[in-house]
Every structure is written in C-alpha cells, then in structure tokens.
Amino acid sequence: MKEKEMHCYHFAAEISAPIDVVFQCLNKDEHVLKWNTQIIRNIYEGSEEDLEAGSTFTTVQKIGGKVYELEGKYVEYDPPYFAVVETETKEGISKTEYRLEELDGETIFTVDVYLIPSNWIYKTTMKMMKWAVKPMYDEQFERFVDYIHTEM
C-alpha cells in the first residue's frame, strides 16, 4: 500500500469451488450482473474476452438511487489469481484488488479496496465515514459467495 492510499475495506472468504469457476463468476458479466446489484452494465474498449493489464472500460452503476458512469482500468490482471481495477471520480482514485488462491480444492478469495483521495476534504471525509461503506461492500461480496454456492 502506498502512503497516500487509504485502506477502506477488506473481505475474505473460503469458497467451495475451483479457482477458475470463482474467477469466471467474479470477472465475466454473464455472472457479475446476476450477483452484483449495483452494476447495470460494463462497456469494454474491445472485447470482454480480451482483457489484460491496461484494458479500460466504462461501468454503469446504480448506487443509492443515482446512476453513475465510471471509467475503469485493469491495472494488473493475472487470471485466475489476481486483478487490480482502478476507477477515477472527483473524490479520487478507487483501487480494488482481487486475490484468489486455490487450497485443497477450495478457493481463498480476498478483496481489498483503497482510496487515493483527490484532496484533503475527501481524505478527511473518508476517514470519518469509511465504516459506512462496509455494509454495502459486504452485501455485494456475500451475494457473490452465495451465487457461486447456489448457481454453480
């Protein structure tokens, strides 16, 4: 973690499924749109099948009744083990790191979210309010784990 990054969220789960299945459910829109209630659609530059480090996309999300279009970039991409996605907003850069590890036929899935605030106002606000994002993220990633266990 770089000095100006603020750690905002952590999630970890053991999933009773092969790592390739877990990664597909995490990364392919045919699955993501079924478990992630915030994402309306993703629009890729090129094909979703050709993702690699440096690939960019627009994600259309509905959060709190408002629709947002965010520009995203795969900063690192090593399927099925690791992906880092960054999106930039007026608040700063949000960086989400996904890590998967296969262990005894199960997949260890971890997510960490960081914010690189664009100014001191957003830094202060995030320090005071980061507890508020945990339930929102928990809901999505618990739905992800449930989706794999019930649908796959």
UniProtKB/TrEMBL annotation:
Q: What SUPFAM superfamilies does the database record attribute to this sequence?
A: Bet v1-like
Q: Which residues form the Activator of Hsp90 ATPase homologue 1/2-like C-terminal domain?
A: 17-124
Protein name, entry field: SRPBCC family protein
Q: What Gene3D superfamilies does the database record attribute to this sequence?
A: 3.30.530.20
Protein family membership:
Belongs to the AHA1 family.
Q: Which organism is it from?
A: Oceanobacillus luteolus
Q: Which domain of life is it from?
A: Bacteria
